[in-house]
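lol ok so funny story. i was supposed to be doing the assay writeup but got distracted and ended up predicting the structure for this chain instead. priorities right. anyway since i did it might as well share w the group, maybe its usefull for someone
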Amino acid sequence: MNPVLNALIIIGMIYTLVKFLHWYFGKARRIIQLTSAIPAPSRNWFWGSLHQHPGITEKTLTWYVDLSKKYGDIYKIWFGPFIPQIHIASPELAKVILKTAEPKPLDIPGYGVVQPWLGTGLLLSDGDVWHRNRHLLTPAFHFDMLKTYADVFRRTTDSLINVFDSLAERGDSFDIFKPMGLLTLDTVLQCVCSFYEDIQHLGENHMIVKLTHDALSLAIYRSLKPYLWSDITFYISPTGMRFRTACQNFHAFTRDIIEKRKLELSENPDLKQKQRDFLDILLVARDEDGRGLKDDEIEAEVNNFVFAGHDTTSSTLSWALYALTEHQDFQEACRREIREILKDRDSDEIQFDDLPKLTNLTMGIKETLRYFGTVPMISRKLTRDIQVGDHLLPSGVDVNIMLFLIHRHPSVWEKPDEFIPERFSADNAVNRDPFAFVPFSAGPRNCIGQNFAMNLMKVTLARILNRYIVTYDATHPIVKVPEATIRTESGLWLKLERI
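and the output, tada:
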């Protein structure tokens, strides 16, 4: 063998060993010691607990439920022999973490898999950068700004209704995830940067739809393949090269829109006062020192909102419609409520002022978020030691807040395995701990766009239920898949009957 190659291999092995020893004695050993009393399943010398993990299948949710039943509201699993990950399954313990501004873990296979795509925007930033940008972005979701998005909701749901009319006329069942994904992507792009193109009809034939799908699916694929966790192996693999290309093209798309808008604002300064969309607010925002966001920060925030605003919302809409097919009486109650609001009008448009009146529909959406656990968990990386219950969780440890377990915790929810929208009536919810229901997270790092998402879901569902009776095609069995959101292996197939 070539002596130079031999020397390089030896140097590489020594470097790796030194890095490991520095990490282990500098951080990992203390984490292992301080979490030693937290119960966990048996640990394999190499895989940790991962050899017991069912993978990304429906059995994963059952596995987590079984672990919480066996070990209680706080337990850990091992990622390999040296990395404990803490899971919290009760509102009382979760609130201790959620009340802090602790950041997301940017490790691979966690949120780090999407960071090359999204950049370090509000979703992934921390510290002073997060505090500053959160303050600068808040006006984009002010009540007055949310009202301006109502026109966008009308346009995009008009396009959806056109698609649904064709499906209802044919009488075919269809996978609801696909049109809902296109609807929410179309809506978010219009609200973020006034991007008007025929996304809902072009579907995967539209560049931005394909780029969004590729970037997310390839990032999820990487998270499931330990041999791709290293950047070196990932970016020389075919998957990594496709992911890099998708990210580069997506970034080019975003930068082009930002540059055109900056030019437009420079040529017509009066437009700065109008703040037509999210991008306008980003471009004119200034902190107390008069500093605005840098170009890469603006790009990251646009990418973050496109990602966070469309995937979770489309999944919730899909599961909400499925739930209404299983509870036809409640579907009809929602329909009566909608028609009462629209009874003296010539159109079926839902106005912004109508949204608080949709009490049944709101209860149904909230129960969907609780029962189906659209986002099954959220994660934090501790930057300081925090006492949680009887355990001192050390700085540097990853903590998973298990939302789908919290939302079914027997200390809070009566009959947690049943779909009961009335549990979110004003009377039933009045004394409930606000940390018992946290689908949009809670505390200082709660979802800044939660009112935007709720408004979009109310408008969309009201337009659909006013026009169609929705039923489920039982020939397509449901097998859940917990990815970034809860999906299914083969779609969620519904039928529409025009009223």
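The longest strand covers residues 493-498. The mean pLDDT is 90.
back to the writeup now i swear
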